[in-house]
Amino acid sequence: MVLGLLFLKYVSDAFEEKHEALGNEPHADPEDRSAYAAVNVFWVPKEARWNHIRDNAMSPEIGRVIDNAMAAIERENPSLKGVLPKDYARPSLDKTRLGEVVELFSFKIGDRESRSKDVLGRVYEYFLNKFARAEGRNGGEFYTPNSVVRLLVEMIQPFRGRVYDPCCGSGGMFVQSEKFVEEHQGRLGDISIYGQESNPTTWRLCKMNLAIRGIDGNLGPHHADTFHHDLHPDLKADYILANPPFNISDWGGERLTYDARWTYGVPPAGNANYAWIQHIVSKLAPNGLVGFVLANGSMSTGTTAEFEIRRKLVDADLVDCIVALPGHLFYSTQIPVCLWFIAMNKAPNDLRGRRGEMLFIDARSLGHMVDRTHRELSAEDIRKIADTCHAWRGQPEAGTYADVKGFCKAATLAEVREHGYVLTPGRYVGMEEAEEDGEPCMRTG
After folding, report:
1. What pLDDT digit, counting tens, does each position of 118-165 carry?
2. What is the pTM of this model?
3. Three-class SS of residue 10?
4. Which of 131, 141, 153, 348 has the smallest CB count inside 10 Å?
5. Nearest to residue 175, comparing CAs of 95, 117, 229?
6. Do 138 and 131 meet the contact criterion of CB atoms below 8 Å apart?
7. What is the domain partition of the chain in residue ranges?
8. Check whether domain 135-429 has CATH 3.40.30.10, yes or no
9. Fold exhibited by the domain 2-115
10. Integer Cα distance of 227 and 242 in angstroms
């Protein structure tokens, strides 16, 4: 409800700002719709403009007024069809409180600076974060913690090309990719966004999240299950970022036994983890790079099907880097998770990893508790992990790579085979060396 109102406020303010600018330009027509489309501004009919909403804030009909406004915006902007919430008039929604939220938005988001895409985007992100915390386990369905998303983006550096997320939630991976391009003085038009989401409410959240930031993304015409109704069947992506749902057992794998995506083996019907891995690999372009989150069990599972798939991925020299993260990062689970990075074409000096090697990073000791149950990675933590990987890949600005006992290790494929294809970083990096404290060792007995 709140995010829908925020979106309505944003599109109305953006429209009014452009409307005013056109009114001050000689020979410009403020009612020319093409002038709005040219700058990615939605056309907002009079009954959907915020001043009309605000004027009716304390009316008992405010719910109906908002529903009509949402319907009008969808009618005038086909790309938003079926996206906006339209049940503000339902009897169970407190109309007094709804009106108070409208007035709060009118007062707090009023000046031109606070209407900027960045500020409104951060407000939207704030609400997503707070709602994910409040939802607890269910919050993980639509929200990946910001520090994890930033780490993934910093690790794969999506400067240009096609960026894909097969389970995109509310769109955090896309937003952070756009921010990365901006922060590194790139052009936003250099990346194109593709995504898919099975949950209808989350799909709408993502559409609104991208629209409020002016990001043009292809999320398909509707929500859909990625395994059973791939909306981008011919896509080959340069970068893939994903946080698939962990350890899903009811993904319908028994109906996909002969699927063409299972190049490295048929994943078990009782766990979708390795189905996600192979779907993601099937979507990579010849020089593609991917980073995704999985439960720690994916690194060492010994079930026959999963072991064989992992063995074939390692022997094909596709696994680029594995990062073990600390626990308590996610709202949906307190278990520790890991990051997988896969590169389709590892080669010397191509910044896609080192052929015949894998990098293992044990970051379980990093991060700080922000409250009693949740941990976050700091900017310094993210930089430490990302720079280590970039140095190993051969990026000169990241410095020279060296193994650090207890933190990182560049292992050959022969070493991985010796460890039975177990990819847990702790197996490779060893124990951190304890610092000498200068105290003599006393022996008794």
Report:
1. 566 667 777 776 766 666 544 445 568 889 999 999 999 998 899 999
2. 0.86
3. helix
4. 348
5. 117
6. no
7. 2-115, 135-429
8. no
9. Ferritin (1.20.1260)
10. 14
